Amino acid sequence: MEHGSHMEHGSPMEHGSPAEHMDHGAHEAPGGPGGHTGHAAHHSHMIADFRRRFWVSLFLTLPILFLSPMLRKLLGLSALAFPGDRYLLFGLASAVYFYGGWPFLKGFFSELGERRPGMMTLIAVAITTAYGYSTLVTFGLPGKVFFWELATLIDIMLLGHWIEMRSVLGASRALEELARLMPSTAHRLLPDGGTEEIPLEHLRPGDRVLVRPGEKIPADGRVLEGQSAVNEAMLTGESRPVEKKPGDEVIGGAINGEGSLVVEITRTGAESFLSQVIELVRQAQESKSRTQDLANRAAFWLTLIALSGGAITFLVWWAVMRKDLAFALERTVTVMVITCPHALGLAVPLVVAVSTALAAKRGLLIRNRAAFERARNLTAVVFDKTGTLTEGRFGVTRVLSWEGFSPEEVLRLAASVETHSEHPIARAVAEASPQTDPVEDFKALPGRGARARVSGREVLVVSPGYLREKGLNPPEEALKLSAQGQTVIFVLVEGKLVGAIGLSDRVRPESREAVAALKARGIKCFMLTGDNARVARTVAEELGLDEFFAEVLPQEKAEKIREVKARGEIVAMTGDGVNDAPALAEADVGIAIGAGTEVAIETADIVLVRNNPGDVVTIIDLARATYRKMIQNLFWATGYNAVAIPLAAGVLYKYGVLLSPAMGAVLMSLSTVIVALNARRLRI
Q: Where are the alpha helices (DSSP H) in 27-118?
């Protein structure tokens, strides 16, 4: 939420508005999850304080209602009056004013100190006017007391703030939920092979820890021993458990599956993935929002309108309409209460908090709020190819076979040989086959391939260069694969060419869905790559992209983004955040995809934790839904006041419609709750 938000100045609590407390609580995140627990307790204490003030004030209000002359007269209980009852009424009302009204009085002085009159100013002026006038009447001034209106007004204000705080804090629980992901202890391995249980804060990089089945991983690290499926859903949004084996990275807070793991700790505290996520969520909730600026200005002017409207209302009823002082004061107090910009002050911050929490749960980390808001107007998305639209590693895309061999057999023979090689292409072939055969006499052929005996037959897996050396001509089908930019290897059995395997950087299945979804929303899709034009064209055609730029050097990528923007497009750049940094910075919205554990990418406006280009669609949908909620809330908060102010001033008095200050407080609180509930209904 905005630090400059109108609601923030002059709080019922330390700085007063529940909106600010939501921000305030987030400030501990950089220090790691531990400090956040203390703020959660602090928030609970603040809510408990409002609840306690409400119940005490309500308890005191009951005898105030009984002692009020106006109510006793209405109920026919005037005979129950007794000497000194007005002083008892004054004492009870004073207790409610100073104890129940203290948060508002404190907020009033805070707002005055910052020269930003706001909600607390309105409430404080209203209750002080009612209390001061009623006190003078108690001690001799002609008129009628407002003590029961004062008490019920404070009760309703306290109840409204209590409910509102719970709504606001509930909307900002993303940080607390993330902080709670971390375990409190870890099982550190000792040199003699034993383990010791230590507090999480005592872990250091280089420590080795044992993670048993079902336990949470205590910190970021690398698997040394063991194999298990790890649930990272709460951290990355990845719904399926991720298989981990020695050498793989693991994230602190993820839940281990059925196997035991020995993990070497690599990052702790503020450097850890989870702490960086918490920090990014906190920054997003505080980062500047253009819509918030509008709400802040509206809330400020509404406060001035309320104060001046209250003064005008008083003068009209007392000096022009010649009503008595008590009636004029009652109208004035009602106008100031009903005009409190509470709902307006929460209209945008609440939606910001809910959308940021929703984004974090989906693995979308918003670093720049203004850029996120721009995402709703995007007309073009430029994708980096390698590692974004594609998997960034070789995969088998086609298997050709001849001489009576089936494609499955060709792949199995090749995979059997390549199992013994460490080359990336060899690994891709080996991984593509569900089974392999025993191999003898394996021999690498540097720069040309490999040879081995498989089930008694000599099998060669070789490059096109080897075929040329031997004077063998590959069939036309294989040449077509090469023309598409694929890497092609050939399989020979006992000297006969029996098959060919095409490999390329495989297109992610999610990329097809993402491009189709973006185009369905009227958004153009471009691709930017340093790869050759043949490969780029193949990928572009497979995905149905509108346009592609190939053989682009890293330093030229920003130039291409400028070129697309010059066409009048509002552009998002989606890349891996490393060599794409200049392009990410140049775009209207920079999106770093596949951040993994390297979350803090400085040039990106939004970081996608998962390697899923489909999350770009989610960002746009969320940005549009968020904006709709903001506009709905602003429309309600301002529209409500346009109707409520004249009503409170008494324009329908001659028709018998007159609002009491307490009823004004009910309507004001109801407006706030409606805005809060509407924000909580944000979905994508």
A: 33-67, 69-74, 85-95, 102-113
